[in-house]
Design a protein that fits this description.
By secondary structure, the chain is α+β, with helices and mostly antiparallel strands. The protein has three domains: about 5-220, Aminohydrolase, N-terminal nucleophile (Ntn) domain (Glutamine Phosphoribosylpyrophosphate, subunit 1, domain 1, 4-Layer Sandwich), CATH 3.60.20; about 235-295 and about 305-310 and about 355-380 and about 485-550, HUPs (Rossmann fold); about 390-460, no CATH class. It is about 40% helix and about 15% strand. It is built from 27 helices and 17 strands. The protein has a six-stranded antiparallel sheet with strand order 2-3-1-9-8-10. Strands 4-5-6-7-11-12 form a six-stranded antiparallel sheet. Strands 15-14-13-16-17 form a five-stranded parallel sheet, sandwiched between helices. The longest helix has 20 residues, at about 615-635. It starts with a strand and ends with a helix. It is an enzyme of class 6 (ligase). InterPro entries: Asn_synth_AEB, Asn_synthase, ASN_synthetase/amidase, GATase_2_dom, Ntn_hydrolases_N, Rossmann-like_a/b/a_fold. Pathway: Amino-acid biosynthesis; L-asparagine biosynthesis; L-asparagine from L-aspartate (L-Gln route): step 1/1.
Length: about 650
């Protein structure tokens, strides 16, 4: 990920020339291949350019197109619809045509409608220096972040918060509601950050900044269509397979080596196998990394599950996968959390690189700049089909409803209870009317270390009840649409982009390709699941490519990084030392109580599930907040 940054003067006050060096110094954790900025008293625009596609070295950013010398373009990401875009703009596309050139030509043609013509992962800033106008835009899913800050004199933007915090006029007051949301893993707001003075430009939005700062405008969203198209099973599967292969292919465009995450689950193994098939003509290999428990901890330490049998079966079937294990023996979790706090300028909400330093250090050492991930698949493209009963009910397809229930429910009592609940809708509504909201056990557990006065100030626990992560009503497609648009998806994309970029690595997500998402959202429910089998499309599309032991499995372990629990256990005394240091400085004590957290760490058992008292997420985020608050106290004595 390249680091974009810029400042626009909104008043007669000049942009300080020293802002450039301050930002570059503040972002030294993020490697670049070329760094350049242009300054005058009205604006500053610059890019720490990390080359990620073959054409990157040819584009001098800030990019100035000969077709309009007043436009300066800085760009982080990758454009996937290059051929289509070039055709619409009457450009002869060749291997030397840069994404930056396509963007500049497209902006000259479409102006604020630019986003409707781009597909890919991108954050873009375009300065019209003749008019002192600035245009910002983010990709549809929010893979590339863009932070913003403003006051009466200036507007600033950057790819990470560290760049903005280097500017003395940016308000560094902590946002207590954001901190509470983060500690309690409540996914609410897509624009707020740890600091009141910094916001996030939302995904699928653009904004224009002139003398005034205009509100962000949405330019894209998934569409829930209710069209009936007569197709055979084979036709649906063929189109799904084509879209899936294309989603992987366009994310393999790169300037150096390629790697992929690979657990033993359906999503990540499918991506790894497809990537290996696509490099087969060139004879290249791809690196695949798998998180596993150390051999001496398998069956002894939570989460117990061992995915290695499934992973080996995939590798045996695909010799172009150069497989590597990551067993968590690298950087300790305490050091990892301190580093993450610096990278994110506070707690990370959901950074996939956190706890994966062993992998990212190896990628950086071998100049591998692209890492494919299966994240996001089970949100929509390979969802488990929650809500299928509502689809049957809406169509009054009682035969299918009864058939699926009888396959899925082992207990005769549960079979009839589920069937009658859907069939007798009025009875279900009457029962629902007498129900009372149940306290969220997860919130209650995580809040056992939260100060009650802090909880009240930030609206908890009520705030958690009115902002559920997942919708519990609606058809399959309605629930899929709700969850794919949930803040928790973009949290992970934004944080993982910033974290991976600190190693010089691009995270790319084939299962979040917007063309694939749109197709899968509107699939008939019987194509998504049938005969008790969920995730039907990808299981059918991967016949002959994945071993059946993986393709047909329904028992995937849930831990993304299974070694986190053992890392916390191993480093718990160091974590306690860090917490004590932060509590001594004062600010952390206004958010959480030290004793229950430290007592929990002391009493931890390697073999016990971690969520009995306080969630690991609460501990990890509290420790990152501790690292942040130590530096915050030194720099903000008046707060």
């Amino acid at each position: 990920m390249s680091v974009l940054f810029g400042i626009l003067a909104l008043s007669d006050t000049a942009v300080p020339e020293e802002a450039e060096s301050a930002i570059i110094e503040a972002t030294r954790l993020w490697p670049d291949d070329r760094c350049k900025a242009i300054w005058n008293e009205r604006w500053l625009i610059g890019c720490k350019h990390r080359f990620n596609v073959p054409q990157s070295p040819l584009a001098q950013q800030p990019f100035n197109s000969a077709s309009d010398e007043n436009l300066l373009v800085i760009f982080d990401g990758r454009i996937d619809n290059r051929l289509d875009l070039a055709s619409k703009l009457s450009i002869d596309l060749d291997e030397n045509t840069t994404d930056e050139y396509l963007i500049s030509r497209a902006f000259a043609e479409y102006r604020t409608e630019l986003g409707q013509h781009l597909i890919g992962d991108f954050a873009i800033a375009i300065l019209d220096r003749s008019a002192n106008h600035l245009y910002l835009i983010r990709d549809q899913m929010g893979v590339r972040p863009l932070f913003i800050a403003s006051n009466q004199e200036f507007f600033a933007f950057a790819s990470n918060q560290a760049a903005l915090l280097a500017l003395p006029w940016v308000d560094r007051t902590l946002d207590e509601t954001w901190i509470a949301d983060t500690l309690l893993a409540c996914k609410v707001d897509v624009t707020s950050t740890a600091y009141r003075g910094i916001a996030m430009l939302p995904a699928a939005h653009w904004m224009a900044i002139e003398i005034n700062v205009h509100e962000p405008q949405r330019y894209w969203q998934l569409e829930l269509k209710h069209e009936h198209v007569e197709r055979t099973d084979a036709e649906y599967i063929a189109e799904f397979r084509d879209l899936l292969f294309d989603a992987v292919r366009c994310r393999m465009r790169r300037i150096s080596g390629l790697a992929t995450e690979m657990s033993g689950g359906l999503d990540s193994t499918s991506i790894a196998v497809i990537a290996s098939k696509l490099v087969e003509p060139s004879g290249d290999q791809i690196e695949a990394w798998s998180h596993v428990m150390p051999a001496d901890n398998i069956g002894q330490a939570y989460p117990y599950a061992d995915e290695s049998t499934f992973i080996r079966s995939v590798c045996e079937m695909n010799p172009l996968i150069n497989h590597r294990w990551a067993d968590g023996r690298g950087m300790g979790i305490a050091a990892s959390l301190r580093r993450a706090s610096k990278v994110h300028s506070g707690p990370a909400r959901s950074d996939l690189s956190l706890g994966s330093e062993e992998i990212f250090d190896a990628l950086k050492a071998n100049d591998i700049r692209v890492l494919l991930s299966g994240f996001g698949g089970d949100q929509l493209v390979t969802s488990h089909g929650s809500g299928w009963e509502q689809d049957c009910k809406a169509k009054k397809d009682w035969q299918t409803l009864r058939h699926e229930i009888w396959i899925r429910k082992a207990s005769l009592t549960r079979r009839w209870a589920t069937y009658l609940r859907q069939r007798l809708g009025l009875l279900d509504r009457i029962i629902s009317g007498f129900r009372r909201p149940k306290p969220n056990r997860k919130i209650a557990l995580m809040a056992s270390g939260l100060r009650s006065d802090f909880a009240r100030r930030t609206g908890y626990p009520q705030r958690a009840f009115v902002n559920p992560t997942r919708q519990l009503k609606g058809t399959v497609a309605e629930r899929e649409l709700d969850v794919i648009q949930s803040p928790h998806v973009v949290y992970r994309l934004e944080d993982s982009a910033v974290g991976a970029a600190s190693y010089g690595v691009d995270y790319r997500y084939p299962l979040l390709d917007i063309r694939l998402l749109q197709f899968c959202l509107n699939l008939p429910v019987e194509q998504k699941l049938r005969g008790g089998s969920e995730r039907r499309m990808i299981r059918q599309a991967m016949i002959g490519l994945l071993p059946d032991i993986v393709r047909l499995r329904h028992d995937k372990a849930g831990a993304t990084v299974p070694t986190i629990h053992q890392k916390i256990f191993r480093d718990r005394m160091e974590l306690i030392d860090d917490l004590n240091l932060a509590f001594d400085k004062g600010i952390l004590g206004s958010f959480v109580h030290k004793e229950p957290i430290c007592d929990h760490l002391i009493d931890m058992e390697l073999s016990a599930p971690p969520h009995r008292v306080i969630s690991p997420k609460f501990i990890l985020r509290t420790c990152m907040l501790a690292a942040m608050s130590s530096g915050y106290e030194n720099e903000n004595k008046a707060v």
